[in-house]
Design a protein that fits this description.
This protein has 648 residues and is an alpha/beta fold. It contains 20 helices and 30 strands. It has an eight-stranded mixed β-sheet, with helices on both faces. Strands 5-4-17-16-18-19-20 form a seven-stranded mixed β-sheet, sandwiched between helices. A four-stranded antiparallel β-sheet has the order 21-22-24-25. Helix 5 (115-131) packs across helix 6, helix 7 (173-183) crosses helix 8 (203-210) and helix 13 packs across helix 15. The protein binds 5'-O-[(S)-butoxy(hydroxy)phosphoryl]adenosine. Residues 267, 312-314, 389-392, 414-419, 440, 501-503, 515, 518, 610 line the site of 5'-O-[(S)-butoxy(hydroxy)phosphoryl]adenosine.
């Protein structure tokens, strides 16, 4: 079978309000079409012009060199520095005294840094790195809570040309060890702890455990955050505050070639060891800069909040590099969304007068579950634009977000992209696109997206297939660290010359893309290939259900049968009657074909720490197999035990 059948029939459409449109950076369909055409027909002119909006130490000679495909070289011959783009370029004018980072800790402590202050901190810590012998080309691992020093550390590494490898602060010692070894990191930056649900998460202790046998790590910088006790390795460990106190704030940016590595970021594939996704300097920055500007429609008076952690690519591109390159005021929050109460996010929106909010479907579904009374307590009227990323968003959650958070006033940008793409690829432009609940809508500038069958032939409207990108783009990954063969094999071997993203999708009659989830997760029932996302959306549209994950399990009759795992909300109670009602609901909503053979109630679903449901683990459970899969990225191990019934 070469296609994935689409059974989702969503017809609602929401054009931007006239007021939003009129004030937007891109405000007409004609303008979008013209720029989009130019970006595909004459990428050199388009990207060359955008790149020249950013500061260069030496100008580039050529916009794109694709002769070494699949490794692209963008803006060849140019030299710049990410800290120049994100900080120094704002220091000569009025933005010097504008708030760059508006940070709130979980306990409620607030710190703000103007661009001038951020610049000084970055230069000082850059000198502290140098003083410990860290130099251009050395890799530095960062394992920190969401405190301002995390953004400072990232930019300081960039300033001296030392690629950073940020490891999400929830990962285990083993995960740190693997990543530090694979990246050949020689220094680590951490903190004593970070606040999470009212307790300090002992980060330094986890780093110590990870580094027991790490001979190559000569320095561990430690930020004092929670004042919890830490062990100290003399000669290796340095307090951040001591290091910066001894450093001066004069540190010219290292001239970096456009194609010098800016960072590595590890992402776990469904199999095998994590991949060190490698991004380079100029192309990545151009992508992060332009998408932030147009997708979030950033203006000088915006208070922009992306709720991701800097440990994920979303935080790299849309907390640090993209918004700062645009001179935005960026909100950063340290803690959990329900600490000390389930309305904490909305309290933050009210308190800091947030105007643009970017979050994930998994968070939105949690907010729905916690109840409308929490956002209702706060004034959310400053919000003007909402965004989501990370998974397909089911239309019910989208509608809730629009109504309850956006007051039916804010456009929603559902942004499809990946760690590998570096920047947003498919997205509405908020002043132009009529959005549709569940669709990421149109390709961004320079993005040539298509849906193809197994042979690589482009499919027609509404035919589900494989999502590919047919042209290189500036912020694309340049490789997998240390494994060029795996890079080729994973992304470029399925269809020669095309980037295969691993996602299923369909494109509708208006040219809007509907992402159908990972193709590895596709269900095959009686010879019909169905998207997990669509069946899950149908389940979640039932009033009793808050979250659902469907997987296929072997079935003698149908080849595979659908097994649904659902969590019910405050309004529902697990029962046989509800089980039957849910099967019937799916049959009515999308057809008998998709009717689950089995419905299992779960208190929680197994998720990665970034909120993605780990369906491969559910497949084992549905089939009654022991899991032999990699579970190191699982957020909460007890969820798995409970699903298997080990703890009953
Ligand atoms: C995968 C990439 C990109 C930052 C966070 C995740 C899924 C991401 C969407 C969306 C449908 C989405 C895809 C993609 N995904 N955004 N708006 N609609 N699916 O980065 O961990 O590299 O994951 O997340 O499956 O391939 P990542």
């Amino acid at each position: 079978m070469s296609q994935i059948e689409s059974v989702l029939h969503e017809t609602r459409s929401f054009p931007p309000s006239e007021a939003f449109r009129a004030a937007a950076r891109i405000s007409s369909a004609e303008e979008y079409e013209r720029l989009y055409r130019e970006s595909l027909d004459d990428p050199e002119a388009f990207w060359g012009r955008i790149a020249r909006e950013l500061p260069w130490i030496e100008p580039f000679e050529e916009v794109l060199d694709w002769s070494g495909a699949p490794v692209a070289r963008w803006f060849t011959g140019g030299k710049t520095n990410a800290s120049l783009v994100c900080v120094d370029r704002h220091l000569d004018g009025p933005r010097a005294d504008k708030t760059a980072i508006l940070w709130e800790g979980e306990p409620g402590d607030v710190r703000t840094l103007t661009y001038a202050e951020l610049g000084a901190e970055v230069r000082r810590f850059a000198n502290a790195l140098k003083a410990r012998g860290v130099k251009k080309g050395d890799r530095v691992a960062i394992y920190m809570p969401m405190v301002p020093e995390l953004a400072i550390a990232v930019l300081a590494c960039a300033r001296i040309g030392a690629p950073h490898s940020v490891i999400f602060g929830g990962f285990s010692a083993q995960s740190i060890k693997d990543r530090v070894e694979d990246g050949g990191c020689t220094a680590v930056i951490t903190a004593d702890g970070g606040w999470r649900r009212g307790k300090p998460l002992p980060l330094k202790a986890t780093v110590d455990e990870a580094l027991v046998h790490a001979k190559d790590v000569h320095t561990v910088f430690c930020v004092r955050r929670c004042e919890n006790d830490v062990d100290w390795v003399e000669g290796r460990d340095v307090w951040w505050h001591d290091a910066v106190a001894a450093a001066d704030d004069d540190c010219p940016p290292e001239p970096m070639d456009s194609e010098d590595t800016l960072f590595l970021l590890y992402t776990s594939g469904s199999t095998g060891k994590p991949k060190g996704i490698q991004h380079t300097t100029a192309g990545y920055l151009v992508g992060a800069y332009l998408t932030s500007r147009y997708v979030f429609d950033l203006r000088d008076d915006d208070v922009y909040w992306c709720t991701a952690d800097i440990g994920w690519v979303t935080g790299h591109s849309y907390i640090v590099y993209g918004p700062l390159a645009n001179g935005a005021t960026v909100v950063m929050y340290e803690g959990a969304p329900n600490e000390p109460h389930p309305g904490r996010f909305w309290e933050l929106v009210q308190k800091h007068k947030v105007t643009v909010l970017y979050t994930a479907p998994t968070a939105i579904r949690a907010f729905m579950k916690w109840g409308d009374e929490h956002p209702a307590k706060f004034d959310l009227s400053t919000l003007r634009l909402l965004g989501t990323v990370g998974e397909p968003i089911n239309p019910e959650a989208w509608m809730w977000y629009r109504r309850t958070i956006g007051g039916e006033r804010c456009p929603i940008v559902d942004t499809w992209w990946q760690t590998e793409t570096g920047a947003i690829m498919i997205t509405p432009l908020p002043g132009v696109t009529a959005t549709k609940p569940g669709s990421a809508t149109r390709p961004f500038f320079g993005v040539d997206a298509a849906v193809v069958d197994e042979e690589g032939n482009e499919l027609g409207p509404n035919e589900g297939g494989l999502l590919v990108l047919r042209k290189p783009w500036p912020s694309m990954l340049r490789g997998i660290w240390g494994d060029p063969e795996r890079y080729r094999e994973t992304y470029w071997s399925r269809f020669p010359g095309l980037y295969f993203a691993g996602d299923g999708a369909r494109k509708d009659e208006d040219g809007c893309f509907w992402i159908m989830g990972r193709v590895d997760d596709v269900l095959n029932v009686s010879g019909h290939r169905l998207s997990t996302m669509e069946v899950e959306s149908a389940l979640v549209s039932h009033e009793a259900v808050v979250e659902a994950a469907v997987v296929a399990r072997p079935d003698e009759l149908t080849g595979e049968a659908i097994c649904a795992f659902v969590t019910v909300g405050a309004g529902g109670e697990p029962s046989d009657a509800l089980r039957d009602a849910l099967k019937e609901h799916v049959a009515v909503e999308i057809g008998k074909l998709a009717r689950p053979a089995e419905v299992r109630f779960a208190e929680a679903l197994p998720k990665t720490r970034s909120g993605k449901i780990m369906r491969r683990l559910l497949r084992d459970i549905a089939a009654g197999r022991e899991t032999v899969q990699d579970t190191t990225t699982l957020e909460d191990y007890s969820v798995l035990a409970r699903l298997r019934g080990d703890e009953e």
